[in-house]
Amino acid sequence: MGSLSRLKTLKRTSDWRTLRRNVQFNSFRADRSFVASVTFGIPSDIDLRIQPASGPLDSGGTHFRLDYSAKSGDLERVNQPAWRQMLGRGSQGFNPNLHRYLSSHASSTQVPRERVECVIVGAGVVGLAIARELSLRGREVWVIEGATDIGTGISSRNSEVIHAGLYYPKGSLKAKLCVEGKDALYAYCQEYGIPFKKTGKLVVATQSQQIPMLENILNAGKSNGAHDLRLLESNDVRNMEPELECVKALWSPSSGIVDSHSFMISLQADAEEHGASFAYNTSMLRGAVTKRNIEIHVGSTEALTPSSGKGVDAVLCANYVVNATGLYAQSFARNLDGLPVDSIPASHFARGCYFSLPGVKAPFSHLIYPIPEDGGLGCHVTLDLGGQIRFGPDVQWLPELTNSVSLFTQFDYSVDPKRADRFYSEIRKYYPSLPDGSLQPSYSGIRPKISGPGQPSADFLIQGEKDHGVRGLVNLYGIESPGLTSCLAIAKTVHAMLMDQEC
Predict the structure, then answer these.
(1) pLDDT band at 499 (very low <50, low <70, confident <90, very high)
(2) What is the pLDDT of the chain when averaged over all its residues?
(3) Alpha carbon distance 381, 159 (integer Å)
(4) Which cofactor does the UniProt annotation name (predicted)?
């Protein structure tokens, strides 16, 4: 499936178009492989043709073929690595970077070093929001993503809920960024036509002893700026949701759901339209803090192995680096030589499984949440924009992964059907008529936590130079729920931090 930049569309035809001076195009993907964004400014005596490589697009780091010939008729062929930056032109439309590259024919004996302004590592929803924010501010942005597409990790394995800011301590980043992010997200969806729905949310107390906890959530939400909350008696709740059993509920009318994939595609397109470049199947192997910048060694994801340390295709020398790698944030930081180790928080991981209710008419039209539990918000009811219902996630701590995840760790997203046994008992506390055998395994996600079992839930941790002493670096740790809701506000926070660290 091809996706061409809105800056300038290049249509793939059977007769390859000849592209002359100052051709601009962005990225297209074929078979989920990436072709790099480039802007060429070429001397007038060179004809340039770009066509898909004959081999697999992601093999050997070569993603497209660049044919050029001088007017004398001599023809040579070179392979252009996808990561290579070709932005910037000299006098008369001449691109010195391209000229040097064509002249040297990209000697394979030395790993190329590329100077870039901003590198964002990770193309989940938070990384995409940051890329958009920085590119809108006129920054030169490169996004490095180890997977074959955007949002394949945490961002595609959540409830797609727009949170109102109910659960978080007053003054925390989660509280501040969730409330700001919710308003920004609704406005963005309205402006760009992203599918969403303000479904509203009911947080339910199923036992009288839970009512004080419900009141605490009400007070916390109001102190965070969610002023539309109100408590409902059981009769009022029954009028809204006849199938719902509770003694009292907290009503949050501004909670909702969003098509997170459409949202991420829009963020990517917005970033690309303002000059951002994306490199998929590209991983950071190691990095180093130098006196002048931060060096990130990158290569094809498939070529990187934990034992050999080989496969580095390029060294990106960046003024600014944003670590938005989610589950791999601590691992990224540990591989960055020169970053103080004591600035890296402990990492914990909790898997959450979802079960669907196929073949049954959805019993609810609103989001239904129980009282929060250790590590999560309880086994709640979420809806998608098609009206399908899901239950989850539960919380399964993964102690074997604590502080041991590396850049090469592969996470297990399988859903054990036996976990449905616990779901039935939890769900029937508020939905007693759930039929036996009706739940089917759906999907799972893993939360990147910086607090462990039995500990108070940790706040977002967004570190800049004041926290770790490295100019130009922002690390994002523990960006779990409400990360989707908060992403636009997180992006503004990261931009402000980087501008405070002007290189």
Answers:
(1) confident
(2) 80
(3) 9
(4) FAD
> Pseudo-torsion of CA 114, 115, 121, 127, nearest 10°?
-130
For residues 485-489, give the mean pLDDT: 98
Summarize pLDDT for 195-236 with one digit per residue, the tens.
Answer: 999 999 999 999 999 999 999 999 999 999 999 999 999 999
Packing angle, helices 125-136 and 260-273, rounded to 10: 30
Tokens of 34: 């990436």
Residue that wins the pLDDT comparison between 210 and 71: 210
User: Residue type at 44?
Assistant: S
Flag the least confident range among 50-54, 150-154, 425-429.
Answer: 50-54
Helix, coil or strand: residue 336: strand
Give the tens place of pLDDT for each residue, 298-327.
Answer: 988 877 665 545 578 899 999 999 999 999
Cis peptide before 393 (omega within 30 of 0): yes
Longest dimension (CA), the chain: 88
58: left (phi over 0), alpha (psi -120 to 50) or beta: alpha
**Residue 260 confidence (pLDDT) above 60:** yes
Fold adopted by 117-154+262-345+459-500: FAD/NAD(P)-binding domain (3.50.50)
**Cα 200 vs. chain centroid, distance in angstroms?**
25
Q: Give the pair of three-digit tokens for residue 167.
A: 């659960």
**491: which residues sit within 8 A by CB, 6+ positions away?**
126, 129, 130, 132, 133, 134
Fold (CATH) for 192-258+347-447: D-Amino Acid Oxidase; Chain A, domain 2 (3.30.9)
Contact (CB, 8 A) for 321 and 473: yes
> From CA 166, how far away is CA 229, in angstroms rounded?
9
Q: Are residues 488 and 183 in contact, defined by beta-carbon separation less than 8 angstroms?
A: no
196, 186 Cβ separation under 8 angstroms:
yes
| CA–CA distance, 304 with 31 (Å, rounded to integer) | 21
Residue 100 has pLDDT above 80, yes or no: no
Domain boundaries, the chain: 18-110, 117-154+262-345+459-500, 192-258+347-447
pTM: 0.79
CA–CA distances in Å: residue 2 to residues 30, 66, 172, 190, 307 = 6, 19, 42, 26, 36
Cα dihedral 477/479/480/481 (nearest 10): 140
| Residue 453: C-alpha distances to residues 247, 397, 402 (Å) | 29, 7, 11
